[in-house]
Structures are given as structure tokens and as C-alpha cells.
């Protein structure tokens, strides 16, 4: 079977919501919602090999550490394994007093009783009741009328009310989900929720949680936002309800739907770390929280060590976090493209001179350091990279700040290495290419400085006198010039016949304090008009300058030998 030429024969577009005066498009999210992690329930039921008790406990502890205050810990009526974990977690004293755990149950009396029993002894807990209300479920799965479906919800609410009375030591909270809300008639969902509220009698001081799931994402996120705003406007007793969102990612917009749903009046978001969950997953709590963070809103969740969070999530779920996953992926702060690398490099340079903390670095929506990442992996070099990439790497790894024209000269060496290796170049690769290209800290090489002294002649000129090893054989040499560099140039010309003209010279320190090192860069021209570069690195700037001259001389000899 192939894709249909006319998909409208099989699939129907989701209609608009009658909400001509919608308000949500002009709203902003100005504070964090109430968060609920369903990693241990929706997330766990979606993985091939569900977590055992050890993994679930490790995941629970992580969620608490991150700052989750509401955690759905399981489905106690699913079996003894689930029940025992939930009951054991409660009895172990592992649940902090500021954390409320939640369990899920279908609207059946025996299952609801089991759910309450699993939470015996908890200081506070949420029992989450659900039943499907959409036409497809009523007609195909249940073969029930609207009244019969509503009756299921009402009956379950009554059992919840009565069971809570049996455990007065726990601060009980009730949550109801009209499952398949996103594909149900809005007015019917409101009718069912209102009937449940009538049984449970919530108040503004002790509200019910009404969770409105996009159980299967069926429309664009603006439609879901319209549904949420319509529901909030028309629900009787809205002040006694916390409106919660449970979006899935079937259309790839689970986070967007949750964000627009908050703008539309919701108070709470359910989801999983890195978007685990049934089918394409749940709303990613990491993405949504850090989206808020980048807009200046405290998300009330802490991802300061995101790599450790990823490590735990990957271990417990046995599912890798994709390298392109927002904020957490291995490559999301990495630029290979030359133009991107140059822009990022300039952004960091600009930050060094700005007077405030505002983050304005091109291509980086968040400072990786805020999440415990370093800057070493921000710019990485391959065959697609430009001079800004390797220049950044050399600066961060070796402290070298290459002149612009030297970057252009070195780029061909980097490109040749990348093409030859056919892989990404790491810092060691780039440093090795630099050393070989400019004869820096390598042995053997044609000219090698052994020692030298500098003095001033009676006429004011500078005298260079020293020992240079030529192909390993030491020679005593001397020369004079107007300065140190010109005196070394004169020595090379007189002793070895190497003729170079200095075009440009730059230098800088490589560190601070007594261990400071210096780097010197020399642009030279040969008698036939060709340009070559030298680089010298040493404890002091004068010796670095001498080494830069010899570096250029070595390049000249190597070029002559190659031709």
C-alpha cells in the first residue's frame, strides 16, 4: 500500500473551535506552572523493559533533586510490582514533606481501592482518576452513550471520596482526566468534569485537578489552546479547579501545545524528562522549563548539571537522549559551519567587554555554562568548518590568538588534515597541525634555537649572538640590526643565506602571574614575493620573538625544499 494521492478520502482535517474572541495569542508566560513528572508512570509504561524498583527509586530521587514537587509514581492496580514499589516508597520515608506523589487509576471500584491502599501512610497524595470521553471511544471501544460514559466518571468520583475518608491521616487531592479530551466535544468534557466536581465538592482552598490530555495529538497547537481557553471560560466553579495539561508529541508539537495551553489559562503541566512516553512521547519537561528560563522566567526546576540528569535518565529508561535534543543533546551547542563558528567566537569576544550579564551570543539561545557544560565543545572542526572554528579551538586549548591573516594561512593546513582523516578534528589534531605547519615545539627541525644573548653596540644597534642547531649540528652565529627581530634576521641572512622581510608582528601573553608565557607571530615576505608565517612560544616575549623568526625561517627552508 502506498500513500494516497488524495489523503482527504481517508483523513479529515480537525475543525476550528468557535472562539472568535480568543485571548491567548496576546498572553505571555510570566511564571512557572505547577509541574508533574509522569516519568515513573507514562514514561515507564512506554519502555520495552520497564524499570525495576532500583531504577525507579534512582529516578525518583533525581526528580526530587531537580525540584519536582508533584510526581506520578505509578499505576498501583497494574500488578504487585507496581503496588509494592509505591507502598515501599511511602513507607521508606523517601518522600520529602514538600513533595506530593500521585497514582493513576481507571474508574473501577476495585482499582480505586487498591490505589488508595498503596498510598497508606503518605502525608499527602493525589489520586488520579480517568476515563475516555471522545466519540471514537464511546462508539468503538465502549459502545456507550454519553450518559453512560459520564456515569462511569461519577461512580469513580464517589468511590474516591469514600476511600479518602478511610485514610484521614493523608492530605488527599483528587485529579480527574477526561481522557482523549483533545478529540472529544468540548461541552461534553465540561459536562463530565462538572459532574465529577459536584461529587468531590472542591473549593478554591482545596481545588480539584482537572487534567485535559491530548492523549493523541490530533491538531495544531493553536487548536489545543483554543480548547483550553474555551474549557476555562465555560467550566462552572473554575476557581475551584487547577487546569492541568498532558500533551503528547504525535504531531511533533507537544511542547508548543503545552506552552500555548498555559497562555490559554492552564495552571499545570504534566510530562517527562526529555520527552519519554507513549508513542512519540510526552511533553518534554526539560525543553519547556528551559524555554521559560531563556525568556527570563525562573522555571523552578534545576538543570545545572544536565549531563548527570541525562546519565540517570538514559540508565533508567535504557533509551539514549538524542544528540540533537533541545538543550540536552550532545551537539546542540556545537557549531561545525565556519560562518556559525565565526559568529559565536565574536559573540564571546563581545561578552568580555559588555557591562551587564545579558546573553547575546549568536546561535546559542542559552549559556551552556548554566547547564554545567563547558565551552570546549561549542565549536568543533570538520571539513565544513572555517578559520573561526580552529582559531577558537586554539585559543581555548592553547591560549593562541592568531592574527586574522595567519588564520587564513593556517586554514589550508586544517582543511587538508580534515580531508585526509575524513572525520571531526579534535583539539589535539588541530594543535598537531599547527605545530607541524609552523615548526613549533617539534623535533627535529632545520633551525633550532639553543641559546642566545642580546646586547647593544656603541652605535645603538642591537647585536644578536647565540647558538643555533642546524640539522642537529650546533653553530655559533651573530648579527646586528635596529632591534632584536632585525638582528636575528640579519644573523639568518649572513650565516645561512635566508632572506626574509618582516611585514607584520604581533605578540600577547598566554597566561597571568609568574608562570606567564608569551606568543609571537611574524608575517614575512620572501624575495620572490611569497608570504609565510612564523610563531614562537616561550616563557618571555623576547625569546618568543626569536623563536617566531626561526619558525618563519624553517617555513622558508621547507618551502624551498618542496619546490
Description:
- The structure is a single chain.
- By secondary structure, the protein is an alpha/beta fold.
- The protein folds into three domains: 33-317, Aldolase class I (TIM Barrel), CATH 3.20.20.70; 338-435, no CATH class; 447-562, Alpha-isopropylmalate synthase LeuA, regulatory domain (Double Stranded RNA Binding Domain).
- The longest helix has 22 residues, at 541-562.
- Helix 8 packs parallel to helix 9 (254-263), helix 12 packs across helix 13 (387-398) and helix 16 (484-496) packs parallel to helix 17.
- The two termini are 64 Å apart.
- The model has no long low-confidence stretch (mean pLDDT 92).
- It has 17 helices and 14 strands.
- The chain has an eight-stranded parallel β-sheet with strand order 1-8-7-6-5-4-3-2.
- Helix 9 (254-263) links the parallel strand 7 and strand 8.
- It has helices spanning 39-43, 53-66, 80-91, 109-118, 135-142, 146-165, 186-200, 221-234, 254-263, 285-293, 306-317, 338-351, 387-398, 404-421, 427-438, 484-496, 541-562; strands spanning 34-37, 70-74, 100-106, 124-132, 171-179, 208-214, 241-247, 268-271, 447-456, 462-470, 473-481, 501-509, 518-525, 531-538.
- 39% of the residues lie in helices and 19% in strands.
